[in-house]
Structure formats: structure tokens, C-alpha cells
């Protein structure tokens, strides 16, 4: 505890506070811009920090950038249905519907406050649970990751939307896109059509920018008369009361559940920030007392995923700090930063580089407060974006989307690919195919395939590897349950034959 | 293209005769001592740089190649070694072969375009069946290198590399090796080790992971029996006693975390030496004078205090060979790596 207080003492100097402010501000900006994510930003800022005397300032700034980007990504998702990062895709589903109904302010506020709540709670968990969490996380073997991916896949069927066939087709498209590129286990190229540009596969940022930003723009441009010239009429502002009492009541449980999902997933060496957001969305859409509102802007669908993606960051720090294992692109860049300052994350870090670690943890608390202070007032500004006439607004989205893809890849091919995917996204919107399953397939497909083949390769082809350890068995059993339970009421009803309720997946099944 | 390769081979062959150590040291010393004189002396010289220098990092920001490029950029600037601005651009993809193809096809004969390269790219050219390879560029210098380390979990029965290799020979498929991407440095080392031990490299069961973090996790979870990566990657876990370093891949033993230098693979009786090196190349088609000017600038970079500080700060080993010496090295590595990857079966049908 005194170590943590020392950490606060280190952070609460004017200079370090300035770094924290710069970090969250830059982070929020890059989060808002599609394509440019925190990993790229930190990597580009890294050489600038070589000249700093103490690593504390730099690390504080990097933590601020990450947290800021996680939050900033929600802004465009909610206002314009154009998430810039994969971790914001789940937020866009309900968030954009809320904005369309004039509730942009509430959606942004629940995202900001949820991020703060999740960030703070998960930082507490990090300070207390880092060592045991890390021990648990490295128990996961290839077979367990496969089982986890299967569980996630069957658990998030809610994303499939109203039509099962369309949803599965979207998912298949995502799974296919995930296959493109060098097969990681054999080093052989697949579906690249001989092009070097496809050897590294289809970057998820390119897909997200294409499907959402470009697809949405094309969709709107194709039907200029169907929509009002500005995006959404706003509810009248209520001074500083961003959320109604009702909103608070409906948000706090999703915030906590999102945190509970995000933190452990972040801590898993192959977990990531995306899965918990999709799981949180699914959980809320099935279990919320307001599940009938899902699809038309339910605040729970914003509160949960936003809390989950912010909580996952503290989770990511668990294996990074305790074992030196980076679990995301951003964490890998932060690891490089640690090493430049001669700090080796690893089992001894808490003893040897303790002061720095506690300063980093303290800076997370401070960063979360600053983020809230920065973003709540900014909501008033962000929602003004919606007053911009549509043609101007979407033209600038196209500009930023193109810029973002080019900044990430430095390749015209990738920009053209994003536009090609954008055209696909346009037709998907036109014919009512859900977009989110594509992203899900792209994330889960490669993970499932790689871990499945890895597990079999390690076991010399023996399928027993999937039932030989309790952890794998538990995860796979949960997956079977997740698949069967939604149909249980119908099956039971067959037995009783008195009343036939619909399956409980979604109120909106057709 | 076809006319270029034989010429390159010829020059390499002629120089192989002359690359005895004293000569090489003399050449480097001369370059360091009298660079300005050398470039403005009797030899026909060109003014360089006359426009902005652009160093391509053929990978995403944040990786080793990117850091090398940006460190060069900073050292050139801080040392006042370039009168023109120095820029870094990233071209990502396929172990750097996307960047390599761009350098060779688009920037032919432009001495202001440089590219960072390394062992990983040599492997990438083979596994990705790249149409362009490193010998088609104009070699400038190798810069840094890092040794690889072979580790096992602390609970493993293997105490020495000989123990491990004995089991590997007896039952090649029983050992679960893991490391970075397929065809990368780590798998190359295992292939070389297998060859040296008399095991068919194809039989080694190698599980690739995306990056050292995943490999560490797989070693700790019990998925893997043996891990291979750069020394710095596993250092902390070796230090904390969770992993045991069996051998390092350089010419001499280095501390892999245990506090005392770990033995080399050669010490264990297998004639294998592999360093994960990085270097810098220029596009093809440079005139001799242009090439000399670039080499001279990089020579100055290498002896500058800013570069030396950067090496210490990044923990990079100095591994400097410039000009013709670098060319001989690049050619030799290309031949050796292509052979071993072909034997592993990664060069593709």
C-alpha cells in the first residue's frame, strides 16, 4: 500500500501530470480517428521519449494514450457508426441506434463513465491480483484456447441478428477473410492470388474501416432522400446531467459485468480486448430486463462493452508486468519502451523496478480521472458533430478513413482493399446483412484454427488432447451449454405442450 | 536481373580472398580515420547526400527493424552526419519482402533510399518464394546482432544441450520445439542444429508462435518442451528460475539470465553458429562512387558517439561489417539459410 502511495507521489508532480494530460488527449484523438490506433501512436512517439531523463513520464503518457484511445474509439462508433478499432465494434451496434434516436449524449456519457468505472476497478484488481492472475493465465494451453474460442463463438450468437442465414453468411465472410495470408503454422501462403500485398493477411483495421466508415458512407450516399439532412435531432441538453436516473440505474450493472469480463480476458496471453466486448454485448442483450429495446438503442449495450474494453487494458498489464508477456500490439510496444529504459518486465519487476511499476499503476488511476474530466465536457462538443450537414460530414469521414488506412499500412493497395470491402459493406447494408459477425469471424477464425492445429500438432494428432484436461473439458462443456440452453424452453415446452415460448436468444428473432 | 547475379557472385568471390581479418580491420580503420579525405581524395567521388535520405523500415513501427531505422535517423541527425533531412518510412509485410520488392523495383539507382534488413528477411525471401532476394540490393553494412538461446522449463529433465540432442536423435518427433514465425530465425536455428546432430530437419516438430510473448506462455503452460528465441526475450524468465538456458548460438557464451555465461552450441559439440543480425542496404544500380559515399556515411555513423550510446541503450551487440565485407556476408547467409530452409521443407514445392 505504501508502495502505491509512493507511486502516486511520483505521478502527482506537475511534469508527470502534464504527460498524463498529453497522453489522454492524444489517445482520445487517435481513438476518434479511424485506423490509427494506440499501438501505432505509441510506436511513433517512442523515439521522442529517448531524450527524457526518467521513464516514468513516458510510461505515464503511454498508459494515457491507451486508455484515451479505448475511450475515444467509442465516440465515432456511437455518433457515426464508424468504429476505428475492433474493440469498439460492439459499442457501435447499440450506440449508433441511441444516437439516431437523439440519445447521443447519454450514450457518450455512459461510455465515459463506464470507462472510468471499469478502468478504476480493474486497476485496483491489477494492484491486488496481478501475481495470482498471471499464474492462472499461463495455465492456458493451446487446447484451452481453442475451447475458449469455441465458447466465445457460440456465446455471441446474438450478433447474428434477425436472420440466422444472413448472420451466418456474414460470419463466414469474416472466417474466410481470416484465412487469407501466410498460414502461421506452415509458413505457406493461402488465398493470396500470388500477391505479396496479401501475404500478411487482411488487416482487421482495413476491414473495419471498409465495412463501417466506407460502407456506411456509400450506403447513405445511395439514398440521399431517405434520411434527414443532419444525422439526428438531439434531446434537449439538461445542463450537466448527462444521464437520467433511469440511465444510471440501467448502466451500473453492465459496467460491473463488463469489467468482470474484460479484465480476465485481457490477462490471458491470447485473449484480447475484442472478445469480452462481444461477450458483454451478448450477455446484456439476453439478460437485460430491457432486452426488447436491443436493436433500437439500449443503453446496456453501450455501457457493458465500453467497460469491457477499458477493463481489458489493466488485464493486459498483468502478464506484461509479471511475466514480460505482451498480449496485444500495444502491450508489445510498451514492452519495447520498458526495455529501452532498462526495465525488464518479468517476475522480479515488482521487486526490482517496483517504483516504476507502482508509478505506472498510479498513473492509470490518475489517467482515468483525467479521461473523465476531459471527456464529459467534450461530449457537448462531440455531439455538435451531428449538426454538420450529412454530405460534408460523410465526405470528411471518407477522407479520414482513407488517411487512417494509409497511415497504418503506407500502401495504396490497402486503401483500395478498404474501398473494395467498403463496397461489399454497402451491399451488406443494402440487403440487410449484419456487419458485426464479419469482425467476429475475422478475430475468432484464425484463433480457433491456429490453436486447434497447434493443439493437435503438440499431441501428435491425438484428439484426446481436447478432453484430457479439466480446464478444456469445462470450457467445451460451457460451449455446449451455451448452444443448447437457448433452445431449452422450446424443448421443455414440447414435453409439457401447454405453452410454446420462443427461444430466449433474442426477442427479435424472426 | 539475370545479368546482375553473376556479376555480384564474381565480386563476392574475388573479395572472399581478401577478407582475412587483418585486411578487414585495416579497411574499416582506414575508413574511420580518413573519411573526409577518402571521399574527396583521388578517387572519383560524388556529393552525398544531395536530397533527403529515406530509410525504409520494412516492418511495422515498434519492431526491431523500425527501431534500428529510427535509431539511425536520430544518430545521423545528432551527429551532423547528413546535411539533408533523414526520414523513416514503414513498409509492412511478409517478413520485409514487401519492402524489399519495393526497394528493388521502384527505387533502382537512388542512393537516397536505404532499407533496414536482417536475417529474418533472408528467411522470408525463401519461405514466401519472393521473386526478389537480398543479393539483388547494394549491400551497405551489417549493424547489430543478437545471439539466440535454447531454453527449457525449469522442471525439464534436460540439464544440458547434449541431453536434449541425445533424446532428439533417439526420437526426433518427441521433442516439442517452439519459437517465432515459421521460417524465422528460431526455426532456422533448430534446422541447423538438427543437421549438425545428424537428424533430418524435416522431422523436428516445430510450433510457431506469433512473437516471444506467446512462446513464453506456451513454455510456462507446459505446451512446449523447448523454446528458442533471442537471448533478451527469455532473459528475465531464466533469471527468475522459471526457464533454464541450455545454450546460446553465438561464437562465444553470453549471459542468458542465469548470471554466468551460458555455453555456446559449439561448446556442446555441434558446429552451429547463428546470429540474428540486422543491417542496411541500398537499391540496386548504384555507381561505385555512390555506393562508396553511402558506405562512408554509415561508417561515420558507426563510429559516432550517438550510435554507440544507442547500442548501449537498446542492448544491441555491435556487429559491423561494411561495404564488400557486408556483401560477402549477405551472400553467404543467403546461401546457408536457403539451404537449411529447403531441407526443413519450407522453401515450398
UniProtKB/TrEMBL annotation, chain A:
Keywords: Membrane, Transmembrane, Transmembrane helix. Residues 17-440 form the DUF112 domain. The chain crosses the membrane at residues 20-46, 58-80, 106-130, 142-161, 167-186, 198-215, 320-343, 355-374, 394-419, 468-489. It comes from the Bacteria. This is Tripartite tricarboxylate transporter permease. It comes from Phytohabitans maris.
TrEMBL record, chain B:
The keyword Membrane does not apply. PROSITE patterns: PROKAR_LIPOPROTEIN (PS51257). Pfam families: TctC (PF03401). Coiled coil: none annotated. Residues 1-26 form the signal peptide. The keyword Isomerase does not apply. Keywords: Signal. CDD domains: PBP2_Bug_TTT. Belongs to the UPF0065 (bug) family. This is Tripartite tricarboxylate transporter substrate binding protein. It comes from Phytohabitans maris.
Amino acid at each position: 500500500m505504501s508502495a502505491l502511495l509512493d507511486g502516486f507521489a511520483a505521478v502527482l508532480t506537475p511534469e508527470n501530470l502534464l504527460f498524463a494530460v498529453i497522453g489522454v488527449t492524444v489517445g482520445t484523438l487517435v481513438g476518434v480517428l479511424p485506423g490509427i490506433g494506440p499501438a501505432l501512436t505509441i510506436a511513433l512517439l517512442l523515439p521522442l521519449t529517448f531524450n527524457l531523463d526518467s521513464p516514468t513520464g513516458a510510461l505515464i503518457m503511454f498508459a494515457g494514450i491507451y486508455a484515451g484511445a479505448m475511450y475515444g474509439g467509442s465516440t465515432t462508433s456511437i455518433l457515426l457508426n464508424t468504429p476505428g478499432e475492433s474493440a469498439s465494434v460492439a459499442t457501435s451496434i447499440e450506440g449508433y441506434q441511441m444516437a439516431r434516436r437523439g440519445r447521443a449524449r447519454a450514450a457518450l456519457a455512459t461510455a465515459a463513465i463506464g470507462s472510468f468505472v471499469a478502468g478504476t476497478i480493474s486497476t485496483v484488481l491489477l494492484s491486488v491480483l496481478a501475481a495470482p492472475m498471471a499464474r492462472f493465465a499461463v495455465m492456458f494451453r493451446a487446447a484451452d484456447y481453442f475451447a475458449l474460442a469455441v465458447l466465445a463463438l457460440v456465446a455471441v450468437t446474438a450478433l447474428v441478428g434477425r436472420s440466422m442465414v444472413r448472420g451466418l453468411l456474414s460470419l463466414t465472410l469474416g472466417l474466410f477473410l481470416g484465412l487469407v495470408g501466410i498460414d502461421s503454422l506452415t509458413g505457406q501462403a493461402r488465398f493470396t492470388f500470388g500477391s505479396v500485398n496479401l501475404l500478411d493477411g487482411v488487416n482487421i483495421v482495413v476491414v473495419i474501416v471498409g465495412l463501417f466508415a466506407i460502407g456506411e458512407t456509400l450506403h447513405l450516399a445511395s439514398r440521399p432522400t431517405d434520411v434527414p439532412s443532419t444525422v439526428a435531432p438531439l434531446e434537449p441538453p439538461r445542463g450537466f446531467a448527462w444521464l437520467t436516473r433511469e440511465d444510471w440505474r440501467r448502466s451500473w450493472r453492465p459496467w460491473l459485468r463488463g469489467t468482470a469480463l474484460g479484465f480476465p480476458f485481457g490477462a490471458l496471453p491470447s485473449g484480447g480486448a475484442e472478445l469480452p466486448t462481444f461477450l458483454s454485448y451478448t450477455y446484456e442483450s439476453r439478460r437485460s430486463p430491457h432486452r426488447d429495446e436491443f436493436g433500437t438503442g439500449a443503453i446496456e449495450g453501450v455501457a457493458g462493452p465500453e467497460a469491457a474494453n477499458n477493463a481489458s487494458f489493466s488485464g493486459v498489464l498483468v502478464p506484461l508486468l509479471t511475466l514480460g508477456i505482451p498480449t496485444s500490439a500495444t502491450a508489445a510496444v510498451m514492452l519495447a519502451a520498458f526495455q529501452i529504459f532498462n526495465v525488464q518486465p518479468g517476475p522480479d519487476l515488482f521487486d526490482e523496478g517496483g517504483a516504476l511499476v507502482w508509478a505506472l499503476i498510479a498513473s492509470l488511476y490518475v489517467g482515468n480521472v483525467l479521461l473523465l474530466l476531459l471527456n464529459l465536457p467534450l461530449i457537448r462538443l462531440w455531439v455538435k458533430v451531428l449538426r454538420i450537414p450529412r454530405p460534408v460530414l460523410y465526405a470528411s469521414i471518407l477522407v479520414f478513413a482513407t488517411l487512417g488506412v494509409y497511415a497504418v499500412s503506407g500502401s495504396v493497395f490497402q486503401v483500395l482493399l478498404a474501398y473494395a470491402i467498403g463496397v461489399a459493406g454497402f451491399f451488406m447494408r443494402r440487403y440487410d446483412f449484419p456487419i458485426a459477425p464479419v469482425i467476429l469471424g475475422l478475430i475468432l477464425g484464425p484463433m480457433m484454427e491456429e490453436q486447434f492445429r497447434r493443439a493437435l500438432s503438440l499431441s501428435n494428432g491425438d484428439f484426446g488432447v481436447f478432453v484430457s484436461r479439466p480446464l478444456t473439458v469445462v470450457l467445451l462443456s460451457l460451449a455446449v451449454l451455451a448452444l443448447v440452453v437457448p433452445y431449452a424452453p422450446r424443448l421443455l415446452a414440447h414435453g409439457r405442450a401447454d405453452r410454446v415460448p420462443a427461444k430466449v436468444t433474442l426477442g427479435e428473432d424472426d | 536481373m539475370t545479368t546482375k547475379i553473376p556479376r555480384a557472385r564474381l565480386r563476392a568471390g574475388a573479395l572472399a580472398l581478401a577478407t582475412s581479418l587483418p585486411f578487414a580491420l585495416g579497411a574499416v580503420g582506414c575508413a574511420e580515420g580518413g573519411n573526409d579525405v577518402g571521399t574527396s581524395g583521388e578517387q572519383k567521388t560524388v556529393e552525398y547526400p544531395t536530397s533527403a535520405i529515406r530509410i525504409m523500415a520494412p516492418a511495422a513501427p515498434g519492431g526491431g527493424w523500425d527501431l534500428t531505422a529510427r535509431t539511425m535517423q536520430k544518430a545521423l541527425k545528432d551527429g551532423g552526419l547528413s546535411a539533408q533531412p533523414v526520414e523513416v518510412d514503414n513498409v509492412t509485410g511478409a517478413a520485409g519482402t514487401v519492402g524489399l520488392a519495393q526497394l528493388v523495383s521502384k527505387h533502382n539507382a537512388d542512393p537516397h533510399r536505404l532499407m533496414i534488413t536482417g536475417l529474418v528477411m533472408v528467411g522470408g525471401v525463401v519461405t514466401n518464394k519472393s521473386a526478389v532476394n537480398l543479393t539483388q540490393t547494394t549491400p551497405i553494412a551489417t549493424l547489430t546482432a543478437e545471439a539466440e538461446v535454447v531454453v527449457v522449463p525449469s522442471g525439464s529433465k534436460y540439464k544440458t544441450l547434449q541431453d536434449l540432442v541425445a533424446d532428439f536423435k533417439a526420437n526426433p518427433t518427441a521433442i516439442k520445439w517452439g519459437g517465432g514465425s515459421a521460417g524465422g530465425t528460431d526455426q532456422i536455428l533448430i534446422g541447423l542444429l538438427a543437421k549438425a546432430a545428424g537428424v533430418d530437419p524435416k522431422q523436428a516438430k516445430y510450433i510457431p508462435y506469433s512473437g516471444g510473448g506467446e512462446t513464453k506462455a506456451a513454455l510456462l503452460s507446459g505446451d512446449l518442451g523447448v523454446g528458442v528465441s533471442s537471448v533478451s526475450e527469455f532473459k528475465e524468465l531464466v533469471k527468475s528460475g522459471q526457464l533454464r538456458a541450455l545454450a546460446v548460438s553465438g561464437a562465444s557464451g553470453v549471459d542468458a539470465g542465469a548470471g554466468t555465461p551460458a555455453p555456446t552450441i559449439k561448446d556442446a559439440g555441434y558446429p552451429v553458429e547463428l546470429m540474428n543480425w540486422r543491417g542496411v542496404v541500398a537499391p540496386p544500380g548504384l555507381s561505385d562512387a555512390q555506393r562508396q559515399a553511402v558506405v562512408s556515411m554509415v561508417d561515420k555513423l558507426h563510429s559516432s558517439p550517438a550510435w554507440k550510446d544507442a547500442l548501449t541503450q537498446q542492448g544491441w551487440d555491435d556487429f559491423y561489417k561494411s561495404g564488400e565485407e557486408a556483401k560477402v556476408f549477405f551472400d553467404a547467409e543467403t546461401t546457408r539459410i536457403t539451404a537449411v530452409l529447403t531441407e526443413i521443407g519450407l522453401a515450398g514445392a
